[in-house]
Amino acid sequence: MMRKCHLNTCPVGIATQDPELRAKFKGKPEHVVNYLFMVAEDLRGIMAELGIRTVNEMIGRVDLLKTDEAIDHWKADGLDLSNMLQPAKVVFEGTQFYKTMQQDHGLDMALDNELIRQSRLALETGDKVDIETEIINTNRVVGTMLSNEVAKRWKEAMLPEDTINIKLNGSAGQSLGAWLAKGITLTVEGDANDYVGKGLSGGKIIVYPPKNSSFKAEESVIAGNVNLYGATAGEAYFRGIVAERFAVRNSGAVAVVEGIGDHGCEYMTGGRVVILGKTGRNFGAGMSGGIAYVWDPENDFPKQCNTGTFELEPLASIDDILELKAMIKKHFLYTDSPVAKNILDNWEQSLRHFAKVMPTDYKRVLDNAV
Amino acid sequence: MSNENRIPLKFGYPKKTGLYDPSQEKDSCGVGFVANIKGRPSHQIMLDAYHLNSRMDHRGGCGFEANTGDGAGILMALPKSFFRKVAKTEFDADLADTGQFAVGNIFLPQVDEERDICRQTINQIIAEEGQTFIGWREVPTDAKGANVGPAALLAQPRIEQLFIAADTGLDQEQFERKLYVIRKRFTHRLRLDTSLTEAKQVYACSLSTKVIVYKGMLTPGQLFPFYSDLTNPDFETHMAMVHSRFSTNTFPSWDRAQPNRFMSHNGEINTLRGNVNSMVARQGKAKTDVFGDKLKTIFPIIDDDCSDSGSFDSVLEFMLMSGRSLPASVMMMIPEAWQSDTNMGQAKKDFYEYHSALMEPWDGPASIVFSDGHYIGAVLDRNGLRPSRYYVTHDDKVIMASEVGVVQVDPENVKLKGRLQPGKMFLLDFAEGRLIPDEEVKTTIASKKPYGQWLAEQKVTLGHLSSGSAAHSLDGENILQRMQSFGYTTETMQFMLIPLLTESRDPLGSMGNDSALACLSDKPRMIYDYFKQLFAQVTNPPIDSIREEIVMSLRCFIGPEGNLLQTTPEQAHRLSLDHPILSNQQLTDIRGMSYRGMKTKLIDSTFKNLETNGFENALNRICTEAEAAIDDGFAFVILSDRLTSASRVPLSALLACGAVHQHLIKARKRTQIGLIIETGEAREVHHHCLLTGYGADAINPYLAFEALWQAQQEGFLGALFADEDALVTGYKKGVAKGMLKVMAKMGISTLHSYKGAQIFEAVGLADDVVTRCFTGTASRVEGVNFDLLKQETERRHALGFPKRDSDRIPVLANPGDIHWRSGGEAHMWNPDTIANLQVAARTNSTEAYAAFAKHSNENATRRCTLRGLLQFNVSATDAIPISEVEPTSEIVKRFATGAMSFGSISEESHETLAIAMNRMGGKSNTGEGGEDSERFNMLHNGDSKRSAIKQVASGRFGVTAWYLTNADELQIKIAQGAKPGEGGELPGGKVDEKIARIRHSTPGVGLISPPPHHDIYSIEDIAQLIHDLKNANRKARISVKLVAEVGVGTIAAGVTKAKTDHLVIAGHDGGTGASPLTSIKHAGLPWELGVAETHQTLVMNNLRSRVTLQTDGQLKTGRDIAIAAYSAQKNTDSPPRR
Questions:
Q1: pLDDT at A337 over 90
Q2: What average pLDDT does this structure show over A282-287?
Q3: Do B846 and B869 fall within a single domain?
Q4: What does the alpha-carbon distance between residue A243 and residue A223 come to, in Å, rounded to a whole number?
Q5: How far is A260 from chain B (nearest CA, A)?
Q6: Residue B698, domain CATH
Q7: How confident is the model at residue A3 (pLDDT cuts 50, 70, 90)?
Q8: What is the CA A19 to chain-centroid distance, rounded?
Q9: Which of B266, B508, B786, B1126 to mutate to test the interface with A (most CBs of A within 10 A)?
Q10: Residues B630 and B741 in one domain
Q11: What is the largest CA-CA distance in chain B?
């Protein structure tokens, strides 16, 4: 054995992406099938010898195993495997020894059952639907079951933007809009808990405070930890501050937010993030792709950065500026944010206060592509 | 089933049996509070608390009965007017002023006679402490109305309320201390009373003039209906803290519900063993006037069967009672990441540094809410790993909880919505009637004493200790012989030490470990090889020590600790080290020091060759000498094997360190001296981790320096590291990186808490060795004892210093431990097994398969693995004709391939496996790299390249709604056998156009998988992810992949309660594309142990019927699979590597 998978030089074309080495791969599906059938046959032989008819019958039968007395070894002789070979103890009446029942995942309680019902037209024909409902924190993972229905019906392309519009009033439970499919827009008037837009898959999420609230949104927390973790596509707008680890491992989603906690954009590899407020410590650790734009009028962003993989640049290129402006405009449009409005109203002046976070590797690759 | 396999249980945890160990049990939860900032009591607070708790139901757990919860509870400021009324009705007593009476809920035995004895004992202790007993009231409960499950009901203790009045002349604080002593005394006496069959039912929920706790084995929704006091409109309070528990078992236990006496905890203390050991040792030196000679009656501060939260609470309470304030105590126990924070104010840094001389951090994910009625506060761990959100309203209410939206508040009434930030504290002072911001609390506390000045005057650094004596140079004599006698090999140099220096990190390797377990090896193995590193999975997250370096630190104070209960300048008089590795000069300086009363004792840890009982005598001698050194006033001991020679044999440094450390803990003296190891034995990262993990404060690995210096002289390091200082610095740098990573694997961020925390498991060490040197470490396969360790030591010594000079070997041995070589260490994959397997698979030759299987079973597996030591018990049953056994076509459906990503392996090999498994009806696994959606479509010839199992790993590469929709099984990869607790990196060179497209990234840019799933920091989080994935695809079964380690059964039980449909218990020998060699070799356990532990634990919890169990790791033949099935799993994983 070579033991060099970590070097990309695997000589038999397995653990490598080098086209020349890959050509040396000789494996065929039938080889695997041959081998595994022989393993199964081998197992049958052992089962027959032990009087066992099915694999289920075998499970946990430690009485059919014993220590091999014949082994003569200066160290292994004294090994005591009795703990391993002890039959499982039964504490409660009616205990069974292999899987005999299904878990109750509580799916019948999901708000999505109702959302799916109300989205029937969109699911069947692609027509637009509008839904409005109350939400509380026990309504978890809202929009996800519906996304699964969209994917099943409309395949990878899913639906056009804003086909299913859902307005939610209250405090959304955890994992709001996880893997939200393209074509679905979730708008929350209220606030949200952890994991908003986890794995976002093309859908759109908008969160803003209740219209009649008296606190300053940009100084208050609107959503919890680890939002947009592993997002691949879609958009998210938060009128307020979100907690730690925003957009970790984001690879394609576009997001605007008014302040974030520690470890923002960690391991990010793609997408765009606009932060119109303060950031916590260790920003951008291990970030290797995508771009973040940070509004930093007080110039305290640089000391929050973990610049191991990126550099801070002023905003210079016209493409960047247009992209940023378009995103902030949308944020204002969707959330009615005074922060966004103020920046847009004083655009030329505000521009000077934006820092651009550009991963070094990403820049190198983009520059080479041009 | 025979009765011997039944262990009926009324309450509490079962005793340790088989591979199940109750000390592995863990829990987590939802936590929150409601309070009126101005301290105005009302019943509305109770109503809000009820909603808060009920709406966090999904964060709590329940067992196999939906109506038996894991525990719920509430802590409130004592509702005085309510209890005045109660006392009047029940006892016709008029309660005195506030602060002069106490009420507490006490759990007592159900057996009447035993309960009488308990009450009598308690009454007597109250009298002995000079206080006035008022009465016992049976707490009204309604189990039926609350619909409490049968298991919880059976286990329910009798719940009675104890009323006590203060002796005249005592102020409130003095009375509180009396109550503490009373509670500690009766708890110790009754719980340990073996004449009571229900002794362990005795438990005081609280006993205080300030707060009261109601709790039990309930679901959050059952709490209020169960205790009717709570819904009584007269029951008024200004603050209420609630807690819902999620534990990793179904065993009934009322006292493990939270809140504890002064706090609730959401999270897990990773460093518990070290914290507890240190507290035990500190008892020896603790002194305070407030308790005087009563202090001893409080000990042990932490009771034996306490959970991590319970232990934390016990220490917090101890400090509180000894005169520290609640916020200051919490700051000491859960400090911010102050060491490398450049933005933190100096006064606060000084406070943290000073207190780090008194106590190590209690490290782990934590959201802690604490209250003594005067304050209520909350604090978050340094990494912000638990959620904590709050609202402040215009009408002076604060609502804080793990989630928002748990109490309905009119939006117009909300003044502020905030969250607790990492390391920050949130404090309400009811007397002042305001919310005190973190900065103010901490600045006030930090400026109470001149900590900075104390440190400047007292702190000792290596710079202070220039002894003037010359250190040993790195040009050692007879270096080859000494290297041989300490077990150095060519592989040590080639794969470990040289790359450690040149790459400045723990060296990388690939594929799985297939060589023999140390306890099965023919070779004399280093004792370090018998230990496996533990790692975090599910109940707490590993950390990324590289990307999140800001929370990591190796800095420690070492040397004698002061009295925990005082705050004086002298407590900072300790030696501060930035790195546990000492250069020769630094060691010499410490050895020769005589600095402001600090001096060092050198203890020789070698023994005379061939002396009868030399080994045993030496082990005893060093322990005695170390203890004597403390009594003689030394500040440090150095255990040294420098004298190793033809006539002197070294004790293993790890054995020596462990023996002395444990000896001193038992003598309650460990914290009174610094323990330094000068050794030729330790060299690898794993070695240094073990030494510090078992108590070493600092290490001087002189032979590693010499060996590297020699390599430098011989040109192996090129032009680098041209002088001795540069070489030692380079070595320290590599070791630091490696050690931080090993700590981070367990989620520990500071060496200070890692030290002595014993985050290891032994495989194949006998009980006598573990008890003496590694007390408390799990070793479930016993075997190698002191005699064998001694033999190994002597055999190694004889390699370097043989009896006859002519037997000397002029080069280092090459044992072939990492790469197979003829005559070397046994490996399961060797030229024989590989050749036969290739012929068998390509030609479908049953003969070749038979040859492969025979060689594999009888030679390779037998020499390397635990299953090699087993045989089938054919005499137990009668054989049947093979025709009666289910057909191969059914059996192969249970097979699945290992999870190798496209990216880690090539497209051709990935697709070949998928087609093969689909043809058989088995399952292939995408691995963590996503899957090209092209592959979801059937091929024209009827084949399919679609992987049935779609993996969801921490990097979430290509995990989209469409990907999830196209799965039969969704597998959450928590850990991987080759490198559990670590993330991964795909170098930019491997990321071509296609891989980048599938992973939604940029070609040529490297990719990182984080060590943890950032949406799983705790057991209730995985319940959420399982629920999320099930929503994303209702047809797919959800699977969770864990890696075998001690406690994996307990984790598996928790994950099963979190509703997984399927579990994979991976062995430590799974493959990898790239991983540190330390992890490949030294982390994780054989699946034989993991699978057996999981099956045993799931059966005991009555959860086995809910999950399918699968394993992987070097399964190659029918025999391997049969053994796996007998020890409990259902599906098996094929060995796809060829």
A1: yes
A2: 96
A3: no
A4: 7
A5: 11
A6: 3.20.20.70
A7: low
A8: 31
A9: B1126
A10: yes
A11: 96
Which amino acid, one-letter code, is at B672?
Q
Of the pLDDT bands very low, low, confident and very high (cuts 50, 70, 90), residue A2 is low
Q: What H or E segment, with its residue span, contains residue B429?
A: strand B425-429
Radius of gyration of chain A (CA): 28
Distance, in Å, from the CA atom of B335 to the CA atom of B354, rounded to the nearest integer, reads 11
B594 within a domain of the structure (yes/no)? yes
Residues B135 and B206 in one domain: yes
Angstrom CA distances, B608 to B483, B613, B617, B624, B805, stand at 19, 10, 10, 18, 18
Select from B455, B470, B490 the last residue of a domain.
B455
3-state SS record for A260-303 = CCCCCCCCCEEEEEEECCCCCCCECCCCCEEEEEEECCCCCCHH
Residue B950 belongs to domain spanning: 865-873+887-1130
Q: Is residue B809 part of a domain?
A: no
Q: What is the pLDDT of residue B248?
A: 87
Q: Where is B1092: in which H helix or E strand?
A: helix B1087-1100
How many domains in chain B? 4
Distance (Å, rounded) from C-alpha A151 to C-alpha A158?
6
Domain stops at, among B709, B736, B757: B757
Do the beta carbons of residue A73 and residue B861 sit within 8 Å?
A: no
Does the pLDDT at position A313 exceed 60? yes
Q: Which of A15-19, A133-137, B131-135, B204-208 has the lowest mean pLDDT?
A: A15-19
| Distance, CA of B1032 to CA of B1092 (rounded, Å) | 32
Contact residues on chain B for A197, CB-CB shorter than 8 A? none
Among B820, B853, B964, the residue with its CB nearest the CB of A179 is B964
Whether residues B1072 and B1095 fall in one domain: yes
Rounded to an integer, what distance in angstroms lies between the CA atom of residue A184 and that of residue A122? 10
Whether B795 is in a domain gets the answer no
Q: What CATH superfamily classification does A122-369 receive?
A: Glutamate synthase, alpha subunit, C-terminal domain (2.160.20.60)
> Does B833 lie in the same domain as B712?
no
Judging by beta carbons within 10 Å of its beta carbon (0-12, 13-18, 19+), is residue B34 exposed, middle or buried? buried
Q: Which residue of B has its CA nearest to A94?
A: B1102
pLDDT bracket for residue A268 (50, 70, 90): very high
Amino acid at B872: F
**Rounded Cα gap, residues B530 and B686, in angstroms:** 11
Residue A148 has pLDDT above 50, yes or no: yes
Ranges of residues in chain B whose predicted pLDDT is under 70:
1-3, 510-513, 860, 1070-1073, 1128-1138
**Per-residue tokens: B544:** 């990324």
* Token pair in block for residue B991: 């990321």
Is B29 a residue of the active site?
Answer: yes
**Is B818 part of a structural domain of the chain?**
no
pLDDT in tens, B971-985: 999 998 878 888 888
Please answer yes or no on whether B1095 and A222 come within 8 Å at the CB atom. no
Parallel, antiparallel or unpaired: strands B1062-1066 and B1108-1112: parallel
What SS3 state is found at A253?
A: strand
Dihedral sign, Cα of residue B437, residue B442, residue B443, residue B448 = positive
How far apart (Å, rounded) are the C-alpha atoms in residues B906 and B388? 44
Residue B1118 has its nearest CB partner, among A45, A147, A270, at A45
**Higher local confidence (pLDDT), B213 or A15:** B213
